[in-house]
Amino acid sequence: MSEWLQQAIAHADSIQDGFAEQRSASLALLKDTKWPNRKTEAWKYTPLRAVERSSAVIKEDSPELMPQSVLGADFLELTFVDGQLVALPDELPDGLTITMQESSIFATIKPERHLFGLVNDVLASDIVIVTVAEGVQVEQPIRINNLLSSGAQAHIRTVVELKPKSSLAVVETSEAHGNTLATAFTEYLVGAEAKLEHYRFALQTDDNVAVGGSHFKLLEKAVLNSSIIGFGSQLQRIDTDIIHAGEKADAKLNAIYLLDGQELFDLHATVEHEVPNCTTEENIRGIAADRSRAVFNGRIHIHRDAQKTLAELNNRNLLLSDKAEINTKPELEIYADDVRCAHGATIAEIDKKALYYLQTRGVSKSQAQLMLSFGFINELIDQMPNAELAEWVRPIIRDRFAQMEVK
Amino acid sequence: MSNENVLLSIKDLHASVEEKNIIKGLNLDIKPGEVHAIMGPNGAGKSTMGYVLSGRDGYTVDSGSASLAGEDLLDMDVEDRARAGLFLAFQYPVEIPGVSNLEFLKVSVDAQREARGEESLTSAEFLKVAKEACKQVNLPVSFLKRGVNEGFSGGEKKRNEIMQMILLKPKLCILDETDSGLDIDAMQVVANGVNSQRSSERSFIVVTHYQRLLDYIKPDFVHVLADGKIVKSGDASLAKELEEQGYAWLQTEPKEDELED
Amino acid sequence: MTEQIDKALAREYEAGFVSAVESETFEPGLNEDVIRRISEVKGEPEWMLEWRLKAFRVWQEMEEPNWAHVDYEKVDFQAISYYSAPKSMKDKPKSLDEVDPELLRTYEKLGIPLVEQQMLAGVAVDAVFDSVSVVTTFREKLEEAGVIFCPISEAVHKYPELLKKYLGSVVPTKDNFFAALNCAVFTDGSFVYIPKGVRCPMELSTYFRINEQNTGQFERTLIIADEGSHVSYLEGCTAPQRDENQLHAAVVELVALDDAEIKYSTVQNWYPGDEEGKGGIYNFVTKRGICHTNAKISWTQVETGSSVTWKYPSCVLKGDNSIGEFYSVALTRGRQQADTGTKMIHIGKNTKSTIISKGISAGKSNNSYRGLVRMNPGAQGARNFTQCDSLLIGDQCGAHTFPYVESRNPSAIVEHEATTSKVSDDQMFLCQQRGIDPEKAVSMIVNGFCKEVFKELPMEFAVEAGKLLEISLEGSVG
User: Fold this and answer.
1) What is the reported pLDDT for B185?
2) Range in A138-147, A151-160, C115-124 the model is least confident about
3) How far apart are the first and last CA of chain B?
4) CB contact under 8 A, C401 and A343
5) Which of A118, B89, C355, C478 is 20 to 30 A from C227 in CA distance terms?
6) Which family is annotated (chain C) (predicted)?
7) What domains can be seen in chain B, in order of their start residue?
8) Burial of A291 by CB count in 10 Å (0-12 exposed, 13-18 middle, 19+ buried)?
C-alpha cells in the first residue's frame, strides 16, 4: 500500500452514516489491493506519481464557489465544494427525490476492481441518492457540480436510480483550481424501459488530479445515451462501466479527449453484455498535441448467454505532435457465437486530402488544420441530445483548439 | 507570344508523381475571358495538370514555369495560389464530416477577401450571399448546415464545387472532369453555373474526357493532351472530331511539339 | 447445427502414435549440472556453456508470466527431462541409409519428406526428434549455393563466429521466462545462413517431433539472411498422444540484413490433448525477427495443435523502409487454449506492417489474438494495418482480441479492425440445399474465412494446411 493511500484511509473512521457496512467491506478490500505499478494492466500507461506526490488534503473550511452557468439551460443543481454538499435544489419536480439516507444500490454497480472506487467508497462523506419514481419524466436535467478550491482533496459520490419507465438527464461536471485531487464516482441503476441521458465533463486542466468513474446498470429495455468530454491534466482518469443486465437494453457512449501541454488523460470503458439481445455503440475520438499522453481502453465482454448481441466500438485518434503519445487498446472478449461485434481503432494525422482541399480554397494551412481537428470532434458534439450543452461546450473546445499548437 | 495580357502562362512544364514523369513539356497560354478545353485519353496527365498548378503535395515540378497574372505560381503555397485567383473544381471532392459547409465557405471567402484587401462579411451578410449561391446551383439551403460534401451525391458534390467557384470569384477556374458521373440534367445545372460566371475577366480550363460537356460550355480553344503534353490544338470543332474518331488516330499522326494556335 | 459441428471436431489426432525408438534420456530435473551435461553431450565449447549458465541464472530470478488469457496447471520444471536422443544417434548417421529405420518410419507416417521419392518435392529438411537433429537433407546442393543449413548443435562447432554474433541478438536471454529457459537448456534446432545476394534455391524445412515421455523440447532456430538474400523456411511440429502435458519452449531468431527477405511458415500440429483437456503440448514459444534497411520478414502460421499456445512471432522494423508481415490461422477446439498474435515494433522511417489474424474457436476452447503495434518517435511515415477476424463455432467457446496500439509519431498511421462472426445457419442451409454435406460445408466456409492467410503459404504447405483444417473439422457437423 502506498503512503498516500495509508494517509487517505486514515480519515475513513471519522465518517458516521448509514453506509458503514459497505464502507468497511470496501476498506477491507482496499487493504488487500496492491498499489498499481507499470505491470498492473489497468495502469500500464498511466503512472500514479501525481497521486503519490499530491499534497492536496481534505479541508475543513472551504471558500464559496459557484458553478459556471450554461446559457439557456436550467439545471437542478447538486453542488459539492471540496467534497462537501453545499447546495441542493430548492424545489424538486414531482417524483424526483434526493436524500442522503442509505441505499441498497451504493457500491453494487461500480465493479470492485476499481482501486479509487474503493477509496471513494471509504472516503465520500456526503453520499447523495437521487431517485426518479416509476413512470416519471424529469424534464430538467440534474447537474452534479464537483468544485474544488486550491489544495483540496475531495471524494464525491452520487447514486442515481431510475425506476421503470422514468427518464432523467444528468450532467456530471467538475471545476478545479490549482493543486487538487478528486475522486468522483457515480452509480446509475436504469430500470426497465427507463431512459438516462448522461454527460460527464472533465474540463479542468493543469495541476488537477482526478480519478473517477460513471457506472451504469441497465435493466430490461433501458436506454442509455452517454457523452464524456475530457481534457487532460496532471492526471485525469475516468472509468466507465456499462452493464447490460436486462434484455433489449441499448447503450450509446460517445467520448472525446483533447489533450495539450503535458497533460495525461486515461479513459477505460468496459461494457458487460450479461444477457441476450442488447446493443452497444461506442464512438471514441481523441486528439493529443504537444507533449500530452492519451490512453484509451475499450473492453467489450460478451458473456456466455448474451446471444444476439450487437456491439461496436470505434476509436479514432489524431496525433498532432512528435512529442505526444497515444496508446489505445480496444478489447473483445466473446463467449457467445450468435453475436455481431466489431471494433476499430486508428491513430493517424490529419487527412491530407481534406487539408489540400481546404487549402485550394484559400484557407491557410494552420487554419485548415484547426478546422479539420475541430470537425473531427464536432461530429460527436453534434450528436449530443442536449442542444444547450452542445452550444455551451462547442466554444470551449474551439478555444482549446485555438490554444493548441498544431504542427 | 508576349506575356502581355496573358492570365495563365505555362512554359515547358515537366512534372512527376512518385518519380514518374507525367507532365512532359506542357506549354499553354490563356488570356482573360478565354475558355480552353483540355481533352485526352485516360492517363494523359489531365488531372495531374490541375494538381500541379494548384500545388498538391507529392506532385513535383521538375522544370519549366507557370505564372498567373504575371506571378510565379510554382513558388506559392497551395492557399496562396487560391488567393491569387486559381480555383480547382475537383473530380472527386473530399468529404469532411464535422466541418459545416457554411463554416468552410465563410472561411474560404474571408481568406479571399482578405487577400484582395476587402473587409470580411458579417455572418448575416455571408449567409445571404451563400443562400443566393445555393439557389444558383440548385442546392437546398439545408446543405449549408451539413458537413462539407458529407453524404452528398455525386451531382450534389459537383454543384457544391460550382457554388464555391461562384462565391470565391477566381480569375482562373480549372474544372477537372466536372461532367464525370453526371446525368444530362445535372450536367446542365453545372454548365449553367459555369456559364453564369463567364466574363471577360475570368478564364476557364475545362478538363474533360468527353465532348458532351462542351455542348453546354462552349470553348474558345480545344487542346488534346497526350502523354504529358499538348499534341494538337484547335477550335471547338476539334472536340467534335475527337468525339467521332476517338483518340487512337492521334497516335498515327506525327507528334507535334508546337501549338497550332 | 452446433451438434453437427461438435461431432466433426471430435476427430482423432493422427500424429498421436508413439515410436518404438530406443532413446537415451536424462533423468528429470533441472540444475547447473544438468546444463553442464547437456553441453557435454553436445561437446560444446566453453563459451557456449557459459552462455547457457548465465541464462540459467537469469531464468532462476524470473517469474512465469500470467498475463495471457490461458489457464493451465503450472509446469513443474523439475519433473521434466531436458535431454532425450534416439540411441541410434550416438554415432550420427552420415546419410539417410544409416538412419534408424524406425525413425524413418516415424517421419513417413507423419508424411514428412525425408525419403527419396519425397525429396523430389525439392524441399530440404532438417528433422528434429526429441532433443536432437536426426537428419538434414540436400546439404550438398545447398552448399553449392553457399547456403548453410545444419543442426544448430553442429553450427556451434563449425560457425562459432556467426553464432557468437547473432545467437541471442534478437531474443535476448532476459526477454522472457521461457526464452531464458530455452537459452539455458536448448538441445537442437536449425541454423540457416544465406550469403549476400543469394536466393536460396529451395524451400528449407524443419520437422519437430516430441516422442519420449516426460521430455520437454527446447529447440532453437537461427536464420541469418545476409544482404540482398532471400529464403523461405517451413516448420512443422507433431507429438505423440500422451496423458501428461509436455512442454515445448522454443526460440526462433531471424536476422534480415539490408535488402534481405525471410519468409517463415509454420504448421503447428502438436498433440492438443483429449476432448476433456487431458494431456497435450504446452507450446510456449518466442519468435522474433529483426529487419534492417529495406528488409522484409513475413511470418505465416497455421496453428491447430497444442493444448496451450503462447506465441507471438514478431518483427522489429529497425531499418528504414523495412516490412513486417504476420498472417495467422489459429484453430482451437476441445479444451484448447491459444493466446497468439504478433508484435510490430516500428523504429525506422517508412516502415510498414500488415497483420492478418484469423481465429477459429470451436468446442470448449478459447482463442485469443494478442498484438502490439508500436510506432516509435522516429518512425516517420510508418504504416500498419491490422485485421483480426474471429469465427465462433458453437456456443461453448470463446474468441478474444487484445490489441495494444501505441503511437508516438504523428506521421505514422495505424489502423486496427476486428470482427467476429459465426458459421451461420443460412450459410449452412444454402450449402446443404445445394447438396453439399454439412462437414464439407463447414470446411469450405472455414477455408474461405482463412483464404487470405493460406495464400501466403508456400504451395505444398497451403495444401497441407487446408487438409489439416479439414481433418480438424471432420465430423464437426451433424
Assistant:
1) 85
2) C115-124
3) 11
4) yes
5) C355
6) Belongs to the iron-sulfur cluster assembly SufBD family.
7) 3-43+61-250 (3.40.50.300)
8) middle
Contacts of A363 in chain B (CB under 8 A): 79, 104, 107-108, 111
- In DSSP terms, C387 is beta-bridged to C356, C417
pLDDT of A292 above 50: yes
pLDDT of residue B255: 45
Residue of A329, A337, A344 with shortest CB distance to C395:
A337
Grade residue B257 by pLDDT with cuts at 50, 70 and 90: very low
Q: Do residues B166 and B136 make contact, with C-beta atoms less than 8 angstroms apart?
A: yes
Task: Pick the more confident residue, C31 or A189.
Answer: A189
DSSP string, A153-187: EEEEEEEEEE-TT-EEEEEEEEEE-SS-EEEEEEE
**CA–CA gap between residue C315 and residue C373 (Å, rounded):** 10
Which of A102, A155, A89, A96 shows the shortest CA–CA distance to A130? A96
Tell me, yes or no, whether chains B and A touch by having 3 or more C-beta pairs under 8 A. yes
Distance CA C190, CA A282 (A): 48
- The percent of chain C in helix, strand and coil, each rounded to the nearest 5, is 25, 35, 40
Spell out the residues 6+ positions from residue C393 whose beta carbon is closer than 8 angstroms to its own: A337, C2, C5, C9, C360, C361, C362, C422, C423, C442, C476
- Provide the β-strand partners of residue C114: none
Considering only CB atoms, A336 lies closest to which of C395, C405, C408, namely: C395
Q: What local confidence, expressed as pLDDT, does residue A278 receive?
A: 98
DSSP assignment, residue A137?
Answer: B
- Rounded CA gap, C218 and C204, in Å? 20
Query: Residue A14 corresponds to which cell in the numbers above?
Result: 471519522
Q: What is the pLDDT of residues A5-23, one digit of tens each?
A: 888 888 777 777 888 888 9
Q: Which of A320, A321, A344 sits opposite C416 (nearest CB)?
A: A344
Residues C454, C459, C462, C463, CA torsion sign: positive
CA-based nearest residue to A258, from A300, A293, A282, A219: A293
> Across residues A176-204, what is the average pLDDT?
95
- Contact status, residue C160 vs residue C45, Cβ threshold 8 Å: yes
Residue A37 contacts C where some CB pair is shorter than 8 Å: no
Which chain A residues are Cβ-neighbours of C428 within 8 angstroms?
none
Backbone angles phi, psi at B141, to 5 degrees: -60, -25
A5 phi/psi in degrees, rounded to 5? -65, -40
Q: Which of C67-81, C118-132, C154-168, C442-456 has the highest mean pLDDT?
A: C154-168
Residue with the three cell numbers 467534335: B240
From the list C178, C202, C191, the residue with the least C-alpha distance to C152 is C191
CB contact under 8 A, C420 and A342: yes
pTM for the whole thing? 0.85
- Return d(Cα B44, Cα B247) in angstroms, integer: 11
B166-187 pLDDT per residue, tens? 999 999 999 999 888 888 888 8
Q: Where are the alpha helices (DSSP H) in C115-261?
A: 116-119, 139-144, 152-158, 160-166, 177-185
Comparing CA positions, the residue from A313, A305, A300 lying closest to residue A276 is A305
Question: CB of A104 within 8 A of CB of A133?
Answer: no
Note whether C touches A: 3 CB pairs or more under 8 A: yes
Q: C12 burial class (0-12, 13-18, 19+ CB within 10 angstroms)?
A: exposed
In this structure, the dihedral spanned by the alpha carbons of residues A281, A286, A292 and A297, taken in order and rounded to 10 degrees, is: 20
pLDDT in tens, C154-200: 899 899 999 999 999 999 988 999 999 999 988 888 899 999 999 98
N-term to C-term CA, chain C: 6
Chains C and B touch (3+ CB pairs under 8 A): no
Cell numbers that stand for A22 in this block = 459497505
Joined grid coordinates for residue A215: 457506472
